[in-house]
# Entry
Amino acid sequence: MKRKGIIIVVSGFSGAGKGTIMKALIAKYDQYALSISATTRNPRPGEENGREYFFVSNEEFEKLIKENGLIEHAGYVNHYYGTPRKFVEDKLNAGIDVILEIEIQGALQIKKQYPDAVLLFVMPPSAKELEKRLRGRGTETEEVIRQRLNRAVEESVGIENYDYIVINDKLEDAVEEVHGIISSAHNTPDRNKEFIAEMREELGNL
# Structure
């Protein structure tokens, strides 16, 4: 039975560690690919086209929107960001699970188009711990930390729309938990309709 990949959408508060979990997951297991977004912003030093992002012009991006070439897209600070459909579907057809790290609005857009996508929300063990991690980075001003904490209040409203929450207390445990959730998702009946139909047909022919 050929296994088809699943879309896994990962969201979470800034500072909850979702990016770190995804990097560790991809380094440990070879069945996952991190989706690469298209963006109209310019590459930063050290960034490569097709590695961090697909860097495209405004015209190219708008053409992708018009041709339904993006699964989801949004505008942030005068630039577009979006998930190219072809990249994702090529990976799924090759049996690779595709991880998309995006915000709640984008996650719900994807669930509408791909009802069998798995939505995960990464949370810290407590709000105090979230604040500690944001401060511990040592890279943010007090104003930015406050903005991120205020944003977390807004983001917490949509958590009920997710399939699973993952508490990121110890990184290794969170990575294994995410891997376990995805492995289990592959075995649900609604993701194995073809196999079930074949089995019924074979049983009928015995």
